[in-house]
């Protein structure tokens, strides 16, 4: 089968190498999936750069997110049949409950083999049914970006109630999914972006107001103006230490900031006084367990949500897709189609 391997971290795009590997076979309790599409995440860039806290094993198959068709099942499999359309859970052994201390040891596309291969085997408990209205390309965007956004918007406690205001940053996959889930839940959304063209696309999704951070570098002041000086109820913070101080000034007293991404850095000092004096809840957020992914998929199916895809690449152009992600100028998800 055709696949990619991570041959060495720290080499950027050259960390990936196109290889041919023997076809895998499913063991007991496993399903064999013919992968139809994968989508890329910032995590994939962190892995090849050596910044991810747990390095990949030698010659690991990269990419955590993928969807495909089950083409064989191992002994003892009862949940799935040949022909079922599924996507893989990022955390393969976290079914439900609190975040396990060893969860990152069981993540696809790093510690475990990833999805950028024609065929992969996964435990039957580690896959989720694809909503019928989604293509494989669309379904491949769900495991990390969609579930991270779902976890922040739909699972944070106390849950944000209809009419509340959510602030999102940029137009990456997590932010766009957060917008879609928030709007579907009756929340209002303010979004930041870098260009008038992207602002118009955000408005077309139903975003209440958009702030161009290139034209308005002190965007936290504009957020306060739009909210009559009160601030938003929740911030989906994907930037890291470069944007976190502004997010802390944008949220209301007692509000919630979900720290999800590190796009602008992670080791710069920040002023923590707003957290203390305004009683802000700063919460690290990320991907959820299998049962949460199943609940998300059911809702996506019920409301017929369609993921926003920026561009689809062919398998042989997978490194070009990774370069596109590295460019950070996209509106939506970067997808690689395998057939």
From TrEMBL:
InterPro entries linked to this entry: ADH-like_C (IPR013149), ADH-like_N (IPR013154), ER (IPR020843), GroES-like_sf (IPR011032), NAD(P)-bd_dom_sf (IPR036291), Zinc_ADH-like (IPR052711)
Protein name as annotated: NAD(P)-dependent alcohol dehydrogenase
CDD domains for the chain: MDR7
Residue span(s) of domain Enoyl reductase (ER): 12-336
Pfam families: ADH_N (PF08240), ADH_zinc_N (PF00107)
SUPFAM superfamilies reported for this sequence: GroES-like, NAD(P)-binding Rossmann-fold domains
Example GO molecular function: oxidoreductase activity
């Amino acid at each position: 089968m055709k696949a990619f391997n991570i041959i060495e971290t720290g080499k950027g795009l050259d960390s990936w190498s196109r290889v041919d590997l023997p076809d895998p076979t499913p063991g007991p309790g496993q399903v064999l999936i013919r992968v139809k599409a994968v989508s890329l995440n910032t995590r994939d860039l962190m892995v090849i750069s050596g910044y991810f806290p747990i390095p990949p094993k030698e010659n690991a198959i990269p990419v955590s997110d993928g969807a495909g068709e089950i083409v064989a099942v191992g002994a003892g499999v009862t949940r799935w049949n040949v022909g079922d359309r599924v996507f893989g859970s990022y955390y393969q052994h976290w079914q439900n409950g609190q975040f396990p201390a060893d969860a990152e040891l069981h993540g696809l596309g790093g510690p475990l083999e990833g999805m950028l291969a024609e065929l992969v085997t996964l435990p039957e408990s580690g896959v989720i049914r694809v909503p019928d209205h989604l293509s494989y390309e669309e379904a491949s965007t769900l495991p990390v970006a969609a579930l991270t956004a779902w976890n922040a918007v739909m699972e944070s406690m106390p849950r944000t109630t209809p009419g509340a205001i959510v602030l999102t940053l940029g137009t990456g996959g997590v932010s766009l999914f957060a917008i879609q889930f928030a709007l579907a839940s009756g929340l209002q959304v303010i979004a930041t972006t870098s260009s008038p063209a992207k602002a118009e696309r955000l408005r077309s999704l139903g975003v209440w107001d958009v702030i161009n951070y290139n034209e308005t570098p002190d965007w936290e002041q504009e957020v306060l103006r739009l909210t009559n000086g009160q601030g938003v109820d929740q911030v989906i913070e994907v930037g890291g230490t470069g944007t976190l101080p502004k997010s802390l000034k944008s949220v209301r007293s007692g509000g919630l900031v979900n720290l999800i991404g590190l796009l602008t850095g992670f080791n710069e000092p920040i002023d923590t006084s707003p957290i203390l004096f305004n009683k802000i809840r700063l919460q690290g957020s990320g991907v959820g367990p299998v049962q949460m992914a199943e609940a998300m998929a059911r809702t996506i199916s019920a409301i017929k949500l369609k993921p926003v895809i920026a561009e689809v690449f062919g398998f042989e152009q997978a490194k070009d897709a990774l370069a596109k992600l590295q460019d950070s100028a996209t509106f939506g998800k970067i997808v690689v189609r395998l057939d």
